[in-house]
Design goal:
The protein is an alpha+beta fold and 344 residues long. The protein has nine helices and twelve strands. The chain binds ligand MTE. Ligand MTE binds next to loops.
């Protein structure tokens, strides 16, 4: 076990999409007699599958499927009222930004398709207005807030964050949004509130992937309250100065840059404060592989691949993955005294 190759070949890395599609196919074919792990890594009969070939390449270090990606969607809608959008914050990395075209064409949004390119193709189904976010649970002032009201309450900031996917690829994204903390403060968490759960829209008509039971819908994610209140945690409504497109989680999504990308729930309709640790989609789907915390940690391998390095989309060479995705100085203190192998 300790002899993991430094850079496993792409064929050894099964992105969750392909892995789940395997699971689903196996289930459907009533072949799912044992545990998934008993199947081992190589189901050759599926490798020609729609989701597999192009997508499996990127994490493994082969050319990302950007050459074959669709052209940038024409005229992403301008964001109204973004005069404050150019305001800089301390949270801006000077690393090269990933191309807009890549950010909007290489996506994980299983409700819009399991491959990286499907979400962009299917995103047009999402109706972005009217949109409201129900803020409820352990709050003194629960409220269903219309998105445009939210946008009036909080000035937008541009924050250029690294995003590290658990599949071992990464991007640098100039998000447009606002920190979550002021919203939570305004709603006044009760003394019992300890966690925050984020829920994605549930509507199989707009999100056709929800017609399959590949995951337990709606997609839910969660944070501890102190993580949610951390100044780095934000709700994004745009990127590169434009409104978010459906494939990136329009009209509003969570961004938590020190955690694996799957913590960033997309197209959020509910923010619920809870006393107990909430259920989260991935930790429920495959608890051995994805934990509640999901802090980027190069020292803790995913059971099926190393997390020590990553491939920045648009670059050829792999680079070392940094603890907490390079945000250790800001966030490591949140986990003082915790065993980060245990709480992965
Ligand atoms: N949110 C929802 N609702 N559904 C998803 O499938 N995928 C997650 C996260 N948020 C996902 C989601 C994963 S695995 C990643 S890496 C990021 O979204 C990808 O965000 P991006 O496509 O905007 O880069």
């Amino acid at each position: 076990m300790s002899k993991l190759p430094k850079e496993p070949p792409a064929s050894e890395i099964t992105p969750p999409a392909l892995y789940l599609r395997r699971r689903e196919l196996l289930k459907n074919a009533a072949l799912f007699a044992g545990t998934a792990s008993a199947l081992g890594g190589g189901l050759v009969w599926l490798t020609g599958g729609e989701a597999g070939v192009a997508d499996a390449g990127a994490p493994g270090g082969e050319a990302a499927p950007l050459a074959s990606a669709p052209p940038p969607p024409a005229g992403a809608p301008p964001l109204l009222g973004t005069s404050a959008a150019s305001a800089r914050t301390p949270f801006v990395t000077d690393e090269a930004r990933t191309d807009y075209e890549a950010i909007v064409s290489y996506n994980n949004f299983y409700e819009l398709g399991l491959s990286k390119s499907e979400p962009a193709r299917n995103a047009g189904r999402l109706r972005l207005r009217p949109w409201a976010v129900a803020c409820e649970g352990e709050l003194k002032k629960p409220e269903v807030i219309d998105l445009d009201t939210l946008l009036r309450w909080f000035p937008l900031e541009e924050r250029v964050y690294r995003m590290r996917c658990v599949e071992a690829w990464s991007m640098v994204i100039p998000w447009l949004g606002f920190p979550l903390a002021p919203l939570l403060r305004r709603l006044e968490p009760t003394s019992r509130a300890r966690y925050v759960q984020f829920t994605t829209l549930l509507d199989p008509e707009q999100l056709p992937g929800q017609r399959s039971d590949v995951l337990d819908w709606p997609y839910v994610e969660g944070l501890r309250l102190d993580e949610a209140m951390h100044p780095l945690t934000m709700l994004a409504v745009g990127l590169y100065g434009k409104s978010l497109l459906g494939q990136n989680g329009a009209p509003i999504r969570l961004v938590v840059p020190w955690k694996y990308g799957f913590k960033g729930g997309k197209s959020i309709v509910r923010i619920q404060l809870t006393e107990r640790q909430p259920r989260t989609t991935w930790s429920q789907a495959t608890p051995d592989e994805y934990g509640f915390y999901a802090n980027v940690n190069p020292a803790v391998a995913h059971p099926r691949w190393s997390q020590a390095t990553e491939r920045r989309i648009g670059e050829l060479r792999r680079r070392p993955t940094l603890p907490f995705n390079g945000y250790a100085e800001e966030v490591a203190g949140l986990y003082a005294g915790m065993d980060l192998r245990e709480s992965f």
